[in-house]
Specification:
Blueprint (H helix, E strand, L loop, with lengths): L1 H20 L17 E3 L2 E5 L13 H10 L4 E5 L2 E6 L4 E4 L7 E8 L12 E9 L2 E6 L13 E9 L4
Antiparallel strand pairs: 1-2, 2-9, 3-4, 4-5, 6-8, 6-9, 7-8
């Protein structure tokens, strides 16, 4: 009889614990998974901005989105003067670049738009372009804090050789 009562007690505690912690995780408490589907590899970090991940507004920058990714432990990054210096995955360093390098490798920032309708700013140029995910991406003219993060747009950081110095 004692074994049956103990088993019943353990079962009740287990079910209570499962129900209590079912909503936990990196989801802001709404029961939905926050997965940004970020591509992380040695030479590339890419994501498509989504209102489903964070609420995007006209004042949301790429830095805000990267901060949300970092807060949700999707990535880690370091930046200096608005430019990426390092990306990490959640457990180890992926790769790093030297800030203000001369003829070295840096994280180049590419976006899939150059301007936004109704905005006079130029966010990217065709100074340098790449193809990624079936889209042409343009070299960003601004750092991560000065580039808007817009729902459905693609943002790619590529670790590449650059003979350009800041």
């Amino acid at each position: 009889m004692k074994k049956k009562l103990l088993a019943l007690f353990v079962a009740i505690i287990s079910v209570t614990a499962i129900l209590a912690f079912a909503g936990c995780g990196n989801n802001g408490g709404n029961g939905e998974s926050k997965n940004a589907n970020v591509v992380l590899d040695v030479e590339k970090v890419a994501f498509t901005a989504s209102n489903d991940y964070i609420a995007l507004s006209t004042s949301t920058s790429v830095k805000n989105y990267l901060d949300a990714l970092a807060e949700n432990r999707e990535i880690k990054y370091a930046a200096n003067d608005g430019f990426i210096t390092s990306f990490f995955n959640t457990s180890s360093k992926i790769i790093s670049s030297t800030v203000n390098s001369y003829e070295g490798y840096d994280w180049a920032f590419y976006i899939d738009f150059t301007t936004i309708e109704g905005d006079d700013a130029i966010y990217a140029t065709d100074y340098k372009t790449i193809e990624y995910g079936g889209k042409t991406l343009y070299s960003s003219s601004n750092g991560i804090a000065g580039t808007p993060c817009i729902d459905g747009h693609l943002y790619v950081f590529v670790y590449e050789y650059s003979n350009f110095s800041w």
